[in-house]
Amino acid sequence: MSEVTAQGNERDALADDRLQIGTHSFGSRLFVGTGKYRNVEETRLALEASGAEVVTVALRRIDLKERGTGSMMWLLGGAAGTGRRYTILPNTAGCYTVEDAVRTCRLGRELGLSELCKLEVIGDPRTLFPDNGKTVEAAKILVKEGFTVLPYCSDDPVVCRELEDAGCPAVMPLAAPIGSGLGIRNPYNLMIILEQAKVPVIVDAGVGTASDAAVAMELGCHGILMNTAIAAAQKPVLMAEAMKRAVWAGRAAFLAGRMPRKLHASASSPLDGLVTGAR
Asked: What is the pLDDT of residues 1-39, one digit of tens each?
């Protein structure tokens, strides 16, 4: 096989590189939220620019029955000129108990959404850190009821293992507090989670800019979910485009395999046999 052919095959492999979560398969590894935008039109443009296939909506903050022109559900249904339909990932944002989270997921399914759900059980109203114990408990209930549970949790390898053992087809550890934009604060925890996990690891919360997204993907994370990083940017649509490219670039770099880190540079050509001149 020629070098040119090999390089072509590498590019083809990346084009076919899909994210598999349970029975769901996605071409884009960027998941996006719908909150904090100035209006529905800005939301539409940002979603388009992001290239995302999965869009998460807060079940407690949106009227799922509202399908009129200009509504969020109208937009997500593909009726706003996008020419496509998004996979809606309902989430349980705002839930502080196991009972509320489970009830909210059941409500979404009754209203016609799929079994796919992003599970959030919040433990602290100021930082929005998750209550990991309640999250594991709720996940066990929902998995038994046939839900495909994507749990938001701390970047704790033990918690992630417990959620995987509970039947979650992916885990979603935070990189930093929700909405903080602080970036990847503890890459080493993420590396441990990635090392042990047998399911996709999706960074959820903390990404602030494109370089943060690239770093997460270069570590080997399988995807990223973000909202504030795009919606709170000065130019959300342009940031959405930047995030799409960063996620792609980070994934490509991970698959390519980076060069080894060295303390200092080394010559690219051997030094042995060089003419050093007469002595």
From this structure: 555 555 556 666 677 899 999 999 999 999 999 989 999
d(CA 31, CA 154): 18
- The answer on pLDDT for 204 being more than 90 is yes
User: In sequence order, which residues have a C-beta less than 8 Å from that of residue 82 and are 6 or more positions away?
Assistant: 44, 47, 48, 75
Helices (runs of H) and strands (runs of E) counted in the chain = 10, 10
Burial, 190: exposed, middle or buried (Cβ in 10 Å; 0-12, 13-18, 19+)?
buried
pTM flag (> 0.90): no
- Write b or e for each residue in 113-135: b if 16 or more Cβ atoms lie within 10 A of its Cβ, otherwise e: bebbbbbbbbeeeeebbbbbebb
The confidence score (pLDDT) of residue 73 equals 60
Beta strands, E only, the chain: 19-21, 24-26, 30-33, 54-58, 87-91, 116-119, 148-153, 172-173, 202-204, 223-226
Which residues participate in catalysis according to the annotation?
A: 118
**C-alpha span between 120 and 131 (Å, rounded):** 8
User: Smallest Cα–Cα separation from 207: which of 170, 171, 242, 238?
Assistant: 242
Q: How far is Cα 140 from Cα 259, in angstroms, rounded to an integer? A: 41
Beta bridge partners of 224: 30, 203
Which among 31, 30, 33, 29 is positioned nearest to 227, based on CA atoms?
Answer: 33
Give the model's pLDDT for residue 80: 41
Using one digit for the tens of pLDDT, what is the confidence trace for 128-147?
999 999 999 999 999 999 99
Question: What is the band of 264 on the pLDDT scale with cuts at 50, 70, 90?
Answer: confident
> C-alpha distances in angstroms, 9 versus 15, 16, 58, 207?
10, 11, 40, 32
C-alpha distances in Å from residue 253, one per residue of 11, 219, 247: 12, 9, 10
